[in-house]
C-alpha cells in the first residue's frame, strides 16, 4: 500500500467518511409519497410522535381521553408547552426535534411554534421528502407495509408509480399474533382460512403472502413479537412460522425479520405510546437459526439485557443478521454500548442502525445523532488498528462504512443494489 492515513488524522478521516456515506435505512414507518396522508411530516407530527406523548404524560394532569379527543395542533401545543417551555428539552426525543429544526435552518431560539408551522405549511410532501433525505444522507428508505391496514391496502390494490427510493417490507403481525381473529379478516378478503389452523388455512396464508410479496415487491417479511415468544411450540404462531412464513421466505429468497421484546399495551390509555419492553428468551431464536439454515433471519431485540447474547448467537449462525438500535435502545448511551458490542464481537457483519422513523423529518435527527456515535466508536477502533501498526487507507475505510450503512445488509439478503 502506498501511503496510509497519518495517525493524527485517523479520527478526523473516519468521522468525515461516516458523515458522508449514504445510508440505506432498512426499517422505518415512512411511506412512499404516493401514499398521501400516510406519510407523516412537519412540526405537529414531530411533536406528537409517540415517544414524546409518553414523556409529556409524565407531566400532564389531564385525563388521557381529553388529550386524544383534541385536534393534533392542540396536542402538539400541549406537548411543546410541557416538554420545551416549562422545562428544558433534554431527553433524546426532545433533543431530536431541535436537531431536526436546526438542520432545516429554522431558528429555534424564539420558541415560536406558529411561525414554525407557517414554514412547514409552504412545503409539499414530494419536495420535502427529497430535502429530508438529502439532509439525512439517506439514499433509500424501507417502509413497513401492512395489507391489514385499511388505509394502506387500497393504495396497493389501485396501483401507483413507485418512488424507487422507497422499498417495501411485508408486515405480518396480525397473522402471527392473533390467528383466530385474522383468519376471519383473511376470509373476508377472499382467502379460504378458518380459525382452526388446518392444511387448507396454511395453504391460503401462503397464497396471501405470495400475492402481497409480489404486489409490494417486498424485500423481507417482518413481525415484532413479545418477550415470551417461544419456538418450536404448540401454538398457532409457531405453527404458522414453521409451515407458512419460513417456506414462503425460502421460496422467495427473503429474510424473515424479527423484532423481539415488545410488551404490547402495558398502558393502553397511552395508545401507540403504551407499549413496553421485556427480556426475550433467545433460545427461540437459536432454535430457529439452527433448524432452518436455509432461512435468513434479520433480528433486533428491544431489551438491553439481550444485546450481548444476540451478538454471541450471530457469531454461531451466519443466517442471522443483527440490525439497529430499536426504540428504547435508540438513546445515545445504549447506541454507544450496542455499537461497541457489535463491532467487537461481529466486526463489520452487522447493520448498526435503522431509524424506525414514523415522521419523515425524524430521519434527519435520528441519523445525525447515530452518525455521531458510530463515527466516534469507529474512530477509536481504527485508531487502535493504526496503533498496532496496521496501515489504513481512506478507500478501505469508505468500503467498511458502506458495509455498515447498507452494504452488509444487501450481501446478507442476497440483493445486489
Ligand atoms: O414494531 C415496530 O416496528 C415498532 O418499531 C413500532 O411498533 C413502535 O411503535 C415504534 O415506533 C418504535 O420505534
Ligand atoms: Zn418499527
What do you see in this structure?
The protein is an alpha/beta fold and 417 residues long. It is 51% helix and 9% strand. The strands form two sheets. Strands 1-2-3-4-5-8-9 form a seven-stranded parallel sheet, with helices on both faces. α8 packs parallel to α17, α12 crosses α13 and α15 runs parallel beside α16. It is globular. The mean pLDDT is 97. The chain binds D-fructuronic acid (FIX) and zinc ion (ZN). The site of D-fructuronic acid has 8 residues, from loops.
The count of DSSP E runs of length 2 or more, i.e. the number of strands, is 9
> Can you tell me the overall shape?
globular
Enumerate the spans where pLDDT stays under 50 for 5 or more consecutive residues: none
User: Can you list the strand order of the major beta sheet?
Assistant: 1-2-3-4-5-8-9
Supply the number of helical segments. 18
Task: Please give a quick description of this structure.
This protein has 417 residues and is an alpha/beta fold. The protein has helices spanning 10-20, 43-47, 50-56, 64-69, 72-85, 92-103, 113-121, 125-136, 153-158, 173-177, 179-188, 199-216, 236-252, 283-291, 307-316, 332-346, 362-387, 394-413; strands at residues 23-25, 138-142, 166-171, 218-225, 256-260, 262-263, 276-277, 297-301, 320-322.
Q: Notable features of this structure?
A:
seven-stranded parallel beta sheet, two-stranded antiparallel sheet, 18 helices, about 425 residues, binds zinc ion
